[in-house]
UniProtKB/TrEMBL annotation:
CC terms in the record's Gene Ontology section: cytoplasmic side of plasma membrane; cytosol
Matching Pfam families: CbiA
Transmembrane segments annotated in the record for this chain: none
GO biological process entries: negative regulation of cell division
Region Disordered: start-end pairs: 1-99
Residue ranges constituting the CobQ/CobB/MinD/ParA nucleotide binding domain according to the UniProt record: 123-191
Organism: Euzebya pacifica
Name of protein: ATPase involved in chromosome partitioning
Molecular function terms, GO-annotated: ATP binding; ATP hydrolysis activity
Length: 372
């Protein structure tokens, strides 16, 4: 009933009608978007998505010319030589070819990220140690999928130890996962669920973890299955930001119920050993299918650490489906709210590669967990 959710209404905008929150543009069901109404419209949508992925305006012809001139000026050839018309044309053609190749690569990434699927998909993001960037990877993956795809995307903070996922976006709701669990039987539809979520500009929605240390209620295995099943009725993509390890009841329930695993590790020997142990443990516990289809994220790579990236990625390559390297980014190191637009282009590109790798897994049939 609507009165059950009154305490969590918070800053969810109301129309004056207490039955539903206002349908902001991001809240309107996508069936009403009239997507696919013509090739021109589809092209505009794809161009908008590509611009988001590239992180800005596509270079104009004049910008490309200036960039080509600047490249020639600081390149191996003497600065005077590119002034010759023929050399300038060659430089411009080469620069345009690089721009065209970058755009083709970006479009290919977008096409992979937009891979279709039936039903709903659940993805667990896990790690064996704290401080490796698991929550950061969760929110960046969620931002990318939500901003490019037409699906409703929700990220659930399933960390039992004061998870911080909700602090990575602007908070709209004071509710948390336990509050939702208490009232899950009264939830009728998506608009009831919106009282328990906070939504970022990317359209990603987040459900917070409990933060009151006096609240000693834990989420059991059956509780977690109930939450995941209810959320999957109204969200086609669900990301679960797990606690460290896989032995707690809640995390074990998530592993049982998800379609894919994303495992985050730091580029350190101890972290790599711990993740290898986790993967072997999962194989021995009957989750070999998840391990074989998993994506390992090597997060926070820095050029000055002397880490052999190829060897590190090669270590995991025979065990999992894909390994993605994400560079260190000062805007992520500080924590707090996260926005793709403030990241370095190389970081955005790496997260897009991660989103594409996850979307590649959508081709597999939906995995049948205990609650299915």
């Amino acid at each position: 009933m609507a009165e059950d959710f009154e305490a969590y209404r918070g800053s969810v905008t109301s129309t004056g009608n207490d039955e539903e929150p206002t349908r902001q543009p991001a809240d309107v069901p996508h069936e009403a978007d009239d997507r696919g109404a013509g090739e021109d419209h589809r092209s505009l949508v794809e161009d908008e998505r590509l611009t988001r992925l590239l992180g800005g305006e596509r270079p104009s012809e004049e910008a490309a010319r200036r960039l080509a001139d600047a490249t020639a000026l600081v390149g191996d050839e003497p600065a005077a030589r590119p002034r010759r018309r023929r050399a300038w044309r060659r430089s411009r053609r080469a620069q345009q070819a690089r721009l065209d190749a970058a755009e083709r690569d970006a479009r290919a990434l977008v096409e992979r990220i937009l891979s279709p699927f039936d039903g709903a998909r659940r993805v667990a993001v896990a790690s064996t140690k704290g401080g490796v960037g698991k929550t950061t990877v969760t929110v960046l993956l969620g931002h990318t999928l939500a901003s490019l795809r037409d699906d409703r995307v929700v990220a659930l903070d399933a960390n039992p130890d004061a998870g911080t996922l909700a602090h990575r976006i602007e908070r709209e709701s004071s509710a948390n996962a336990v509050d939702l669990l208490d009232l899950v039987g009264s939830v009728r539809d998506y608009y009831d669920l919106r009282h328990f979520t906070s939504q970022a500009a990317s359209r990603l929605e987040v459900i917070a973890a409990p933060e009151d240390p006096r609240d000693t209620r834990g989420i059991t295995r059956s509780d977690m299955h109930e939450l995941l099943d209810r959320l999957s009725l109204d969200y086609t993509l669900l990301l679960a930001d797990c606690g460290t390890g896989v032995t707690t009841a809640a995390t074990r329930a998530i592993v049982e119920a998800v379609d894919q695993l994303v495992i985050v590790t730091a580029p350190r020997v101890d972290s790599v050993h711990s993740v290898t142990y986790m993967l072997r443990w999962l194989e021995g516990a009957g989750f070999g299918d998840l391990v074989a289809d998993a994506v390992v994220v090597v997060n926070g790579l820095r050029e000055d650490t002397g880490v052999d990236v190829e060897a590190l990625m090669g270590h995991f390559a025979p065990i999992v489906r894909t390994v993605v390297a994400v560079p260190w980014d000062c805007d992520l190191a500080r924590g707090g709210t996260t926005d793709l637009g403030y990241l370095r282009a190389s970081t955005r590109h790496a997260i897009a590669q991660l989103a594409a790798a996850v979307a590649d897994g959508f081709a597999a049939p939906q995995r049948q967990g205990p609650g299915s």
